[in-house]
Amino acid sequence: MDIKSTREGFGKALVELGEKNKNVVALCADLEESMHVADFHKKFPERFVEVGVAEQNMIGVAAGLALSGKIPFAASFAVFSPGRTWDQIRVSVAYSQANVKIVGGHSGITVGADGASHQALEDIGIMRVLPNMIVIVPCDYIEAQKATFAAALHKGPVYLRLGREKVPIITDIKSKFNIGKAEIFKEGKDITIIACGIMVNEALEAAKELEKEEISAEVINCHTIKPLDKKTIVASAKKTGKVITAEEHQINCGLGSAIAELLSEEHPVPIRMIGVKDTFGESGKPEELKKKYGLSSDFLIKTAKEFKK
Amino acid sequence: MHKITDVKKLKLMANTIRQDVIKMLAEAGSGHPAGSLGMSDIIATLYFYEIKHNPENPKWVERDRVILSNGHICPALYSALARSGYFPIEELMTLRKINSRLQGHPHNLSTPGIENSSGPLGQGYSMAVGMALAGKMDKKDYRVYCLSSDGEHNEGQTWEAVMLAAKYHLNNLCVIIDRNNIQISGTSDDVMPLNSLRAKYEAFNWHVIEADGHLIHQIIDAFDEAKTILDKPTVIIAHTIPGKGVSFMERRYEWHGKAPNQDEAEKAINELEIEKGRIEDGY
To answer: Does the CB of A49 have a partner CB in chain B at under 8 Å?
Structure first.
């Protein structure tokens, strides 16, 4: 399996978008290499705005560009934006329905060695509470490209969550991607695993192992956390009666919470949430951190087995 | 839109805006009189002399953009918009009420003629920079006018925007600072000293003009001068009196965010009517 990061996918798609649509512009806060917007900068210097280390201004400037007909992609690390730009996003972007695409990179615990200050584990939560906001977490390099194209086509604010690490490419050019439409990656009948981002691959690996134990897990790639695909999720919960959610994020406010909110009203079933449990991360290698903080496939397998009993 | 070039008529328009502000706030029972009254001369000159705009087509692409960054003084802006013809003058009395298009702080989607949402300070300033950048990218000749305040310069975001505007030589951007020396809790010297604003802006590589924010001809000269600057954004530091035109509100920070009651409103309108007579008499 080929491995590449979601940020690379974003950067590639952004250049293609730039070629297709002259209204696409990019902003960055002194992280153009890390965020993979350097190629866009080289190719379209007149449509690239380097704001310096000033994320709050970046979002406001992006809103001003959007209200003037541009389609701005404003990129920084997720801990900085939306981390420190939430108020700007709330008023200048969401309340104003400015057509800004907020791109948060280096999200999650797999940022690794930089440590907790740089590991965004709350960004899904703080974005999904905002009216008018779309929240997308692509699972791999190819899906990140599709998400970038879809974000540009969508008229209105979008938050695109990206990761630093190279991760297995599990989708292909033909895989469907529509904002707000979750995809069933593997059908099953005993347990539903709803995952986003890097946890989709972990869920698929767990499901393979579970088959050996005669547990049939359905795996749903829920790349859009807002708006949720109610139909697909509720139908799967009705079919299996048990749901596990999996995300590289705090369980308090992220995908798991969103699923619990939905199912508690529409079709209550027992839920187990895999994610970071109300704690900060630390420095370490991504694989070590995934193990320590309960984000690896073996943790999913263990949870599913206990849940099945 | 027809331009008013007669200074006397601009003074009368500012007086009208002040009377609207008092009536609106008294009716609403809340709001921010000091800054609204203090900026009335500038707002009148901006809307009726300076900008190119079309109230019948608020989204006209060639229009000059006016960004109110210190959003709380929106009553004065709403008055100027209504008096320009963006919406009926009677609607001014719906300010801050349920189902009104006139929100307590500006909302771009609610009110015709309002370009941006603001309230949290610093945000409009960045949006103005973004709009000026878009103008440069598109090679448009519209100008962007950003109304700001001295209190707003406590915010870090404001200075981030100041740096970026200078970096990109946004000579199509003109910021007007309401330098009234007060903010919510007291004088700006007590809360957060800003002097010298001129030296700060010059150090940030802006073109700086200082003007008396109540002398129409000085405001006009400042706007005219700003248009001659080719390589820098311009800031007009407008020295104003908070609460200008209403004796018991002038220079008192207590009137930053308090509406007049009916008696106070009547007193204020009487004073403004006397002032109107003096303007008509050519004072």
So the answer is: yes
CA atoms within 13 A on the CB side of B255: 28
* Integer CA distances (angstroms), B7 to A84, A239, B83, B154, B217, in order: 46, 76, 17, 34, 7
Tokens 């001068």 — which residue? B225
Question: What is the identity of the amino acid at B258?
Answer: K
DSSP letter (8 states) at residue B104: S
Region B235-262: mean pLDDT is: 96
Average pLDDT, chain A: 97
Question: Which segments of A98-198 does DSSP mark as H helices, in order?
Answer: 123-128, 141-153
Give Rg (Cα) of chain A. Answer: 18
Q: What is the dihedral of CA A285, A290, A293, A297, to 10 degrees?
A: -160
Residue B164 to chain A, least CA–CA distance (Å): 6
Cβ of B141 under 8 Å from any chain A Cβ?
no
Pair A161, A107: CB distance under 8 Å: yes
CATH topology identical between A3-168 and A183-308: yes
Whether residue B130 and residue A65 make contact (CB cut-off 8 A), yes or no, is yes
Q: Provide, as residue numbers in chain B, all residues whose Cβ is less than 8 Å from the Cβ of A68.
A: 130-131, 134-135, 138
CA-closest candidate to residue B70, choices B164, B171, B169, B188:
B188
Q: Which CATH class is domain A183-308?
A: alpha beta
Does the beta carbon of B122 lie under 8 angstroms from any beta carbon of chain A?
A: yes
Give pLDDT tens digits for B156-190. 999 999 999 999 999 999 999 999 999 999 999 99
Chain B: residue nearest A48 by CA? B137
The predicted complex's ipTM stands at 0.97
Instruction: Give B119-133 pLDDT, tens digit per residue.
Output: 999 999 999 999 999
CA-to-CA distance for B229 and B209, rounded, in angstroms? Answer: 11
Domain ranges of chain A: 3-168, 183-308
Q: What is the CATH number of domain A3-168?
A: 3.40.50.970
CA of B27 to nearest chain A CA: how many angstroms apart? 26
pLDDT at B40: 98
